[in-house]
Write a structure and sequence with these properties.
Layout lengths: L1 E7 L3 H12 L4 E4 L4 H6 L5 E3 H9 L4 H6 L1 E3 L2 E5 L2 E5 L1 H5 L3 E3 L2 H14 L3 E3 L3 E6 L7 E6 L2 E12 L17 E17 L8 E3 L6 E5 L4 E8 L10 H12 L11 E16 L2 E2 L2 E3 L5 E2 L7 H22 L3 H28 L7 H16 L1 H12 L1
Parallel strand pairs: 1-2, 1-11, 2-8, 5-13, 11-18
Antiparallel strand pairs: 3-7, 4-7, 5-6, 9-10, 10-11, 12-15, 12-16, 13-14, 14-15, 16-19, 17-18
The chain binds flavin-adenine dinucleotide (FAD).
Flavin-adenine dinucleotide (FAD) binds next to α1 and α8.
């Protein structure tokens, strides 16, 4: 097969890149190791920044999101048993939308297939070759045979565990990592919303987050040991912990319901630099990871792709490589801002295993400052909405 851009990975980054390139008249082929059913059913992110929402809408894939997503104009910080609202829209003029990542995936897959786009699912053993030549190649197994894509460029959009980043020789990769000594125990629950806006709770027993997916389904998280096993969290323990960590003095009640999905998420910060090697460009989780506390991962993937798509379009329309040369530095600027914000939120809201009462008091002082100083609240708000 020949194409202009070979895209590895049909996550939000790969699919949106393929869609934006198509709108600009550039051809691509996307390969994905999982099935369409699997990628459309994987529950992950849910908070979309205003810029993400605008890009999806402007590029013609935002119709269902506008209809079924929920615009949130604030978030709640809860600590010392009291709730404090950060008025995102009032402070920044922008808002966030809650619309699940797998719904974004469904919208993008159907837009690509309706436009005759080439998405190859269930490919195995993808390998990248000749990345430092003018015609890089991606070889893989599909339906029992070996296939190869020859392209002008390769976009590595295959997430943190993908094959693209390790295809860059290690001497050309500079990696920055921080692993947090805790994880998030996440559940999906059949229940009505307990709150109109997301609640981020600091508690001496650990962090908790109340989020939503729809009027019938809620997403709740608890800080946990990353080595915990699911079986050590029976339903009764989950609800007891949530009630304790979210308790307030204002009569607020957590709505319980049937837990129908549960999982443990590791918390990590990671960045590789640069985002380019020869004719391979990395985007999204393939290049960087943030802990989910700042709700930035999906939004960063979208921003990378916004910058990368316009650089590819510039190259194919005018022959200029200026955008491609600038891509890594330009995308990394936003990546590091989000890395800092996600680290700051994580550090302020979680219990660390070596915490002393002194550190606990520092966290409370920081939270108190955020909710009592307009300048500090704006800092949080403008980072949160993007
Ligand atoms: C529980 C959870 C909650 C989150 N909440 C938020 C949130 O609220 N807001 C937010 O912005 N972000 C959030 N994130 C992060 C967000 O989900 C990711 O940042 C986002 O999925 C990144 O998109 P991507 O396309 O770069 O990578 P991915 O979504 O990981 O997609 C990569 C794709 O590549 C495929 N692939 C991998 N290897 C290969 C290979 N060798 N060959 C072919 N295909 C391959 C994978 O199957 C996958 O489909 C959350 C993440 C988790 C886990």
């Amino acid at each position: 097969m020949k194409t202009q851009i070979a895209i590895v990975g049909a996550g939000p980054a790969g699919l949106l890149l393929s869609h934006l390139l198509h709108l600009g008249g550039v051809d691509s082929v996307v390969i994905e190791s999982r099935s369409r059913q699997e990628i459309e059913a994987t529950i992950r992110a849910g908070v979309l920044e205003q810029g993400t929402v605008d890009l999806l809408a402007q590029s013609g894939v935002g119709e269902r999101m506008k209809r079924e997503g929920f615009v949130h104009e604030g978030i709640i910080l809860r600590f010392a048993g009291r709730s404090h609202r950060i008025a995102l829209s009032e402070l920044t003029g922008r808002s966030i939308s809650v619309y699940a990542q797998h719904e974004v995936i469904k919208d993008l897959v159907s837009a690509r297939l309706d436009a005759g786009g080439k998405l190859l699912f269930e490919v195995k053993d993808a390998a990248l070759y000749d990345l430092d030549s003018a015609s890089p190649k991606v070889r893989f197994h599909r339906d029992g045979g070996v296939e190869e894509i020859e392209s002008d460029f390769v976009a590595g959009c295959d997430g943190f565990h993908g094959v693209s980043r390790p295809s860059i020789p290690s001497r050309h990769r500079h990696e920055f990592t921080r692993t947090y000594p805790f994880g998030w125990f996440g559940i999906l629950v059949e229940a009505p919303p307990s709150t109109e806006e997301l609640i981020y709770a600091h508690h001496e027993r650990g962090f908790a987050l109340v989020s939503t997916r729809s009027p019938q389904i809620q997403r709740l998280y608890l800080q946990c040991d990353p080595e915990d096993e699911l079986k050590s969290w029976p339903d009764a323990r989950i609800w007891e912990e949530l009630h304790r960590r979210l308790a307030t003095s204002d009569g607020w009640k957590l709505a319980e319901g049937r837990i129908f999905q549960r999982g443990i998420i590791a918390m990590r910060s990671f960045v590789v630099e640069p985002l380019r090697y020869g004719r391979l460009f990395l985007a999204g989780d393939a290049a960087h990871i943030v802990p989910p506390t700042g709700a930035k991962g999906l939004n960063l993937a979208v921003n990378d792709v916004r910058v990368l798509a316009s650089a590819f379009l510039e190259y194919f329309q005018s022959g200029s490589e200026a955008g491609l040369k600038a891509y890594s530095a330009s995308a990394l600027k936003r990546v590091w801002r989000a890395e800092h914000f996600s680290w700051w939120m994580t550090s302020m809201l979680h219990r660390f295993h070596d915490d002393t009462p002194f550190q606990h008091r520092l966290q409370l002082a920081e939270l108190d400052y955020v909710v009592s100083s307009k300048a500090k609240a704006i800092t949080l708000a403008e980072n949160y909405v993007g």
